[in-house]
Amino acid sequence: MSENQQAPNRRNFVTKAAAIVVGGLISVVAPVAGVLTFLDPLRRKSDTRGMVRIAPFSSLPENGEPRKFPVLDTLVDAWNKTENVPIGSVYVQRTGDDTVRVLNSVCPHLGCSVGYRAATQGYFCPCHKSAFAISGAIADPKSPSPRGMDELTAEVRNGEIWVKFQNFRKGSPDKIPV
User: Fold this and answer.
1) Are 53 and 159 in contact (CB under 8 A)?
2) What is the pTM of this model?
3) Residue 165 near residue 152 (C-beta atoms within 8 A)
4) Measured between alpha carbons, how far is 90 from 69 in angstroms, rounded to an integer?
5) 121-151 confidence digits (pLDDT tens)
6) Which fold has domain 52-163?
7) Which own/partner pairs from 5-12 qualify as long-range (CB within 8 Å, at least 24 positions apart)?
8) CB 75, CB 85: distance < 8 Å
């Protein structure tokens, strides 16, 4: 009878050992996968914004009058990725056959939205009456703005306007990125 009892015990041992190994793997793999998923945003590299497509070059008038365009970009926030999110706006002016001047549409004084006036061929901030030339320079010496409008790095690639969009500290005479 002892031989018959040993055979089932051996079978039970292999079954129990396999169950312990599989159970141990499951109890280790699942929490590790959960922790890695939870910590994933911390492992990613920080978002360094590059060039953003603005509009086709052909959408600019040939007479050099600036046009205002929204800046749309993809935002990544922890686990979420949202495309075509408005992050600002710019004025784009044709300055040559394939060159442009791009100005941030925010006033460097307090951050109000600047408008373009075709009649005076310049920009005007309605909040504190800052006036800017078409180049973005301060047009009125009594202007409360500490500096001219912020010019952004831009290039024309394959008939499209690309801009390195960024905002700068308001109220400072220096152009300090934020």
Assistant:
1) no
2) 0.73
3) yes
4) 5
5) 999 999 988 999 999 999 988 889 999 999 9
6) Rieske Iron-sulfur Protein (2.102.10)
7) none
8) yes
